[in-house]
């Protein structure tokens, strides 16, 4: 269990690195104005957001969730430890959690769990700020993304005006072949006007990136991407794993 948690934390280091670089650019550390304009800019996608892409893919592929997750990242000048504990108290109202604390001079980390939820709240010192990450994964065969986002939104301190939010779903598909399912999702993305779709073949399946114009985007090899999905076969079971802008869990 401990190794499993460590692997999930390693998987999201990528997001923290991106956040650090973006935040530095936002403060004007870079001469290139692109990032400073884009860091917290959301696409004007009111029409696009009427369709829940995660739910649409699950419905069309007849997949059912096994895990749903959300990750919130923001900066604050407030005490990292106090901020983390206030967030935990709020989450504890919804989930009734156990907790375990680990800290040093640069970081305060609070792991939490119960029978169906696991995650952590982490505050890392960076220059004059604390970068706070709240990561939660809920094991359920129900589609819980909206509920998780609602609960995380309530944890954002009032003084925080800018933040990043990432989503994650792992779902099981009872029937079908990995290649066929991967192509089916690709066609769904094209139908929903996604572009920059790229596929990488893995030992147990495929991983794909795309730009759907719906979520916070990052650059990858010169292209904008905001959506990542994988189709994987483990033993006899086939899974769809989706995340924005990239999958935030090990797979």
Q: Which strands sit side by side, in order, in the main sheet?
A: 2-3-4-5-1-6-12-11-8-7
> What is the level-2 CATH architecture name of the largest domain?
2-Layer Sandwich
H-E order: HHHHEHEEEEHEHEEEEEE
Shape: globular
Helix content, binned percent: 25-40%
User: Structural class, please?
Assistant: alpha+beta
Averaging pLDDT over every residue, what do you get? 86
Q: Write down how many β-strands occur, each being a DSSP E stretch of 2 or more residues.
A: 12
The radius of gyration over CA amounts to 18 Å
Total domain count? 3
**CATH top level label of the largest domain:** Alpha Beta
Low-confidence stretches: 1-8, 23-45
**CATH level 3 topology of the largest domain:** TATA-Binding Protein
Span of the ends, CA to CA: 15 Å
User: Quick one: biggest sheet?
Assistant: 10 strands, antiparallel
Number of helices: 7
Percent in strands: 35-45%
Protein name: TATA-box binding protein
InterPro entries: YwmB-like_sf
What does this 3D model show about the protein?
The chain is of the alpha+beta class and 251 residues long. It has 3 domains: 1-30; 44-62 and 174-250, no CATH class; 68-168, TATA-Binding Protein, CATH 3.30.310. It is built from 7 helices and 12 strands. It has helices spanning 2-11, 13-26, 33-38, 53-61, 80-95, 145-153, 178-191, and strands spanning 63-76, 98-103, 107-113, 117-126, 129-139, 163-173, 195-202, 205-211, 218-220, 223-225, 227-234, 237-243. Helix 4 (53-61) crosses helix 7 (178-191). It is globular. It starts with a helix and ends in an 8-residue tail after the last strand.
């Amino acid at each position: 269990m401990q190794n499993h948690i460590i692997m999930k934390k390693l998987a999201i280091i990528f997001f923290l690195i991106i956040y650090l670089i973006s935040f530095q650019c936002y403060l004007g550390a870079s001469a290139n104005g692109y990032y400073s304009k884009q860091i917290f800019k959301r696409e004007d996608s009111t029409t696009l957001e009427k369709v829940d892409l995660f739910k649409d893919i699950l419905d069309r592929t007849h997949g059912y969730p096994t895990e749903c997750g959300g990750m919130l990242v923001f900066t604050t000048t407030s005490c990292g430890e106090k901020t983390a504990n206030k967030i935990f108290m709020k989450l504890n109202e919804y989930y009734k959690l156990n907790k375990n604390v680990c800290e040093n001079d640069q970081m305060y980390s609070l792991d939490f769990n119960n029978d169906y939820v696991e995650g952590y709240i982490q505050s890392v010192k960076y220059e004059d700020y604390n970068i706070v990450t709240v990561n939660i994964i809920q094991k359920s065969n129900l589609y819980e993304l909206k509920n998780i986002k609602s609960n995380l939104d309530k944890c954002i301190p009032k003084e925080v005006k800018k933040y990043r939010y990432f989503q994650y779903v792992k779902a099981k598909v009872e029937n079908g072949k990995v290649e066929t399912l991967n192509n089916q999702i690709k066609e769904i993305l094209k139908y929903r006007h996604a572009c920059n779709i790229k596929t990488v073949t893995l030992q147990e399946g495929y991983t794909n990136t795309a730009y759907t114009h719906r979520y916070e985007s990052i650059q990858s090899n010169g292209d904008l991407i905001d959506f990542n999905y994988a189709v994987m076969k483990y033993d006899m079971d086939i899974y769809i794993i989706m995340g924005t802008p990239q999958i935030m869990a090990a797979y």
